[in-house]
Q: What sequence folds into this?
């Protein structure tokens, strides 16, 4: 029979193994983090404007009787709107992770939490959910920051599979490929993006930087007509990243990388 000391030691060892397994699983799949506390007015103002009306903030109503403020968003997003507070929590944690005042350990935890909440929504949303390409791109961006390159590549590919003309799903991964010296791969990826969305200014700029001529791109034809570029979000204010903002960010990243 085990002594009390040995029995306690054995139980502690089992508990530690379980904890290690949970941490490893979280690193692979992401785990929803729980409600973000002490959200400031400035943080909420920087989040997507529908966030204030999601289920976590007391202004949503219920799925059966949405509030007057939430009702237009429910009409656009359908039942998945009632899970979208997780995406908003991820956005808030991402804001906090980008502050210069957080430690590296805090930043890593905030990024891990954000990607977990993003994945929570992707696991519950139908494939035609309007924000799904954007959320997959967001996962890709965070995974790049975390150094999880395979996960980032997979997330961007998921976004492209859902919406082939969604230019951020090409541009972000192409930017990484360019920085890492994989210019041939980046050029092919950007070229494919331009075939689906020939008017995407960021992709055209990237293609020129990679030595290509955007005018040589032949747009893909779908069902007897040219594919229509994705709604850039201006009419619905859903897709968060404008091409002008991304152009400035891309120029800043390239400038920072120049010796």
A:
């Amino acid at each position: 029979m085990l002594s009390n000391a040995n029995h306690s030691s054995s139980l502690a060892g089992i508990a530690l193994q379980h904890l290690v397994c949970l941490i490893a699983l979280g690193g692979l799949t992401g785990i929803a983090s729980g409600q973000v506390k002490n959200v400031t007015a400035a943080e909420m103002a920087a989040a997507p404007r529908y966030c204030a009306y999601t289920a976590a903030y007391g202004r949503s109503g219920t799925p059966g009787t949405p509030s007057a403020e939430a009702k237009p968003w429910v009409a656009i997003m359908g039942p998945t709107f009632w899970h979208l507070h997780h995406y908003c929590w991820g956005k808030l944690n991402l804001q906090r992770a980008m502050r210069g005042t957080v430690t590296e350990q805090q930043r890593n935890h905030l990024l891990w939490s954000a990607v977990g909440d993003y994945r929570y929504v992707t696991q519950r949303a139908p494939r035609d959910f309007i924000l799904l390409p954007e959320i997959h791109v967001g996962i890709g961006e965070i995974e790049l920051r975390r150094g999880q390159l395979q996960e980032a590549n997979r997330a961007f590919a998921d976004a492209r599979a859902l919406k082939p003309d969604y230019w951020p799903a090409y541009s972000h991964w192409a930017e990484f490929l360019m920085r890492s010296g994989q210019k041939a791969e980046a050029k092919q990826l950007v070229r494919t993006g331009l075939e689906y969305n020939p008017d995407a200014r960021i992709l055209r700029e990237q293609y020129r930087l990679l030595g290509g001529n955007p005018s040589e791109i032949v747009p893909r034809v779908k069902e007897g007509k040219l594919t229509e570029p994705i709604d850039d979000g201006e009419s619905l204010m859903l897709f968060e990243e404008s091409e002008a903002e991304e152009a400035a960010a891309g120029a800043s990243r390239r400038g920072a990388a120049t010796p």
